[in-house]
Amino acid sequence: MSQPLPHATRIFRCCVLALLPLAAAGGAAAQDKTVYRCPGPPVLYTDAMTPQEAKDKGCRAIEGTPVTVIPATRPRAPAPAVSSPGARPGDARVDPAEQRARDTDARRILGDELRREEERLAEMRREFNNGEPERRGDERNFARYQERVAEMRAAITRKEADVAALRRELEKLAR
Length: 175
Known about the structure:
Helix content: 40-55%
Radius of gyration: 34 Å
Distance between the termini: 77 Å
Strand order of the largest sheet: 2-1-3
Low-confidence stretches: 25-30
Mean pLDDT: 79
Number of strands: 3
Largest sheet: 3 strands, antiparallel
């Protein structure tokens, strides 16, 4: 009983069978090289080995018409997005007034976010209480308390880095 062919092998055979009439009628130059099919994931089809190498690797010769390889086409890069009303595709200029409005919005948004983050940082520092936060009822075990203190310290460090990053972004927009 024969085993069903792997999906890739079936596709390859279908492609070869579909290309046979094209190769015969298309005036393709005859090749003298033998094409070998080598087993294993992934299955390899090559004409770049000697018969002895093919035998050593367990490859078998494919009889008939030479295999034609058709290279895939590369996808085109998308056109740049233009948000100005009435602007044509490919026109990358933005109206200066619109750009100023965008910059003002960005500064306002970043400023609001910076204020929220600074308030949260101040709250975290108050709760941290210089490394001695109040113990909770579930922290009778001192190791659990120390673990929470370490987590709080790490969270404060991350929040300070976030605040610093927001300040840098605001400085960039101020220029």
